[in-house]
Design brief:
about 575 residues, alpha+beta, Multidrug efflux transporter AcrB transmembrane fold, Alpha-Beta Plaits, Multidrug efflux transporter AcrB TolC docking domain, DN and DC subdomains, 13 strands, elongated
Length: about 575
């Protein structure tokens, strides 16, 4: 906005001053000067005459092109935002519950070496078990979990990351009992594109429903890394405290819990500094004193007392399998099924998931819906459609106030759907999906493409006020405005071309908008030069005024341009 306001001031003050100071009274002329532009003008004049003679055919062709554009836009697919290639991705490996740390580390090391052997990989960072840099919270990890962070080389090819992920996914699938989940940064989120939320209260019913959804999605090769928050529980030792017995011995549940956690998991006693690293030093019982349930039962929970009390005296210890996590939404338990996309766009994936899950029978009391990026995409598209309609309405109001007419702004607005022809074709040719970024480009187009039609219709009105008949004014205005219209379009397209070519980091976010504006502006300009004059001739039924002083339209136009 500020740039446009400043450019308007420069155009009205600085440019006329520079032109007056140039000392050039006449434009350069001579043999061959303007030969190319004259050929273009001659060809355009013939095309415009043909369109004015076949007005309904011209509008029919434009309507067919618009319908084709709508069909192409339905075929390009949809997504929330373009996937940002940040040159790194994370892999979470989960072996079978109870897998020792050494085996988890061995499996993770194999995949790390496989990734590091790829020429397109810069470095690989991995860790097995709990208490690591990637997951600083030990309660969210375990000895059967490993994580990898793979960073691509700066000069890696655009599709290299997908190839590395495919190789790691294939190798992990060959390892029995191993689940690998791949996540790449999605702006500020690592969530997977497809999320299905199953809501209910009973955990067993939720587990059964999530297993059914998992089975359905895993039958399709479109979905990869399909997982559920309730898919696999972890074996756990459950301790049920006898509060009355503990109180009679002068103990509280908190004191007992702290002793158990400290002896089994350990406490950070100090930190060891080595170079630029800080390493936690944990103090806990020896492994033979905590590796069995019987050993846990014999843990002393009051080491400071003269009368030692074992844990079995104040609590009941059971071994059971608990859920990996319990999620809630609006105070209701949910099971969340997530999946990555092996190919295709988010919109097509959601449609396939809905069709596959349409006949799925859920246990009583459960409900299911697709959430995540799909839900955000629908909400964003609705708000952006409203923003686009509001932009068109505001543009119409501004033009109506300036033209002092409701008809002429309506004629000018026909250039906006003409831009959709180029948008659909450009997105289809470049395999660019319809996203929030593309919508921003469409909103920009609503204010850009009308400029050419404004200068054309404005000159037509001025010529008619000077005595020209309708068709003569249309032809003369089109001839005089052809060159400036083409020049402004060409400069805008060339200015956006580097952005459309995808140069520099983060180009995935800029390129769709540039492609949208370039495609829409090119077709809107070319069709505006033909369709807008045709629409003007059809809708403007004012009677032609009598020529003043017998001047011809061309002479009036010449006088008008000299006055300008």
């Amino acid at each position: 906005t500020f740039a446009l306001v400043i450019s308007l001031g420069v155009a009205m003050t600085l440019i006329p001053m520079i032109a007056a100071a140039s000392g050039q009274d006449k434009l350069p002329t001579g043999p061959g000067h303007g030969r190319g532009s004259s050929r273009i003008a001659s060809g355009y004049a013939g095309l415009l005459d043909l369109a004015l003679r076949r007005r309904l055919l011209t509008l029919g062709i434009a309507a067919v092109m618009l319908a084709l554009a709508v069909f192409l836009m339905r075929d390009v697919g949809t997504e929330l935002v373009p996937q940002l290639q940040q040159g790194r991705f994370e892999v979470e490996l989960e072996a079978a519950p109870g897998t020792p740390l050494e085996e988890t580390d061995r499996i993770g090391g194999q995949l790390q070496r496989l990734a590091a052997a790829e020429p397109s990989v810069d470095f690989v960072y991995g860790v097995a078990g709990s208490g690591n840099r990637i997951d600083a919270n030990p309660t969210e990890s375990g000895e059967n979990i490993a994580r990898m962070l793979v960073a691509m080389a700066p000069d890696a090819a655009p599709g290299a990351q997908g190839d590395v992920i495919a190789a790691l996914r294939q190798r992990s699938a060959e390892t029995a009992g191993l689940e690998a989940n791949f996540t790449a940064p999605e702006l500020l989120s690592f969530d997977k594109p497809l999320e299905i939320e199953i809501q209910g209260y009973d955990l067993e019913s939720l587990r059964e429903a999530s297993d059914r959804v998992l089975a359905v999605l895993r039958k399709s090769d479109r979905f990869a890394d399909v997982e559920s928050s309730l898919e696999r529980g972890h074996p756990e030792v459950q301790i049920f405290f006898d509060q009355e017995r503990a109180a009679s011995l002068g103990l509280t549940v908190k004191q007992i819990s702290d002793q158990v956690v400290g002896k089994i998991r350990g406490r950070v006693a100090t930190r060891y500094s080595w170079r630029d690293r800080k390493i936690d030093v944990l103090v806990r019982l020896a492994e033979d004193e905590r590796q069995s349930i019987d050993a846990v039962r014999e843990l002393i929970v009051n080491p400071e007392s003269e009368r030692p009390v074992p844990l079995s005296s104040v609590a009941e210890i059971r071994v059971a399998e608990g859920p990996a996590e319990i999620r809630r939404t609006d105070q209701e338990r949910i099971a969340l099924v997530q999946a990555n996309l092996a190919y295709g766009d988010l919109g097509s994936a959601v449609e396939e998931a809905e069709s596959r899950l349409a006949g799925l029978q859920l246990p009583y009391g459960l409900s299911m819906k697709i959430t995540g990026q799909s839900e955000e995409m629908s909400a964003s598209f609705r708000s952006l459609w409203f923003a686009l309609a509001l932009a068109v309405f505001l543009v119409y109001l501004v033009m109506a106030s300036q033209f002092e007419s409701l008809l002429h702004p309506f004629v000018i607005l026909f250039s906006i759907p003409l831009a959709a022809v180029g948008v659909g074709l450009a997105l289809w040719l470049t395999d660019t999906r319809l996203s929030v970024i593309v919508f921003i480009g469409l909103i920009m187009l609503a204010g850009i493409v009308v400029n050419n039609a404004i200068v054309l219709v404005d000159l037509i009105n001025q010529l008619r006020e000077r005595g020209a008949d309708r068709l003569s004014a249309i032809r003369e205005a089109a001839r005089l405005r052809l060159r400036p219209i083409l020049m402004t379009t060409l400069t805008t397209v060339l200015g956006l071309l580097p952005m459309a070519l995808g140069m520099g980091e983060g180009a995935e976010m800029r390129t769709p908008m540039a492609i949208t504006v370039i495609g829409g502006l090119l077709t809107a300009t070319l069709l505006t030069l033909v369709v807008v004059p045709v629409m003007y001739s059809l809708l403007d039924r004012r009677r032609d005024p009598s020529p003043a002083g017998g001047n011809q339209p061309a002479e009036n136009a010449a006088e008008l341009m000299q006055a300008v």
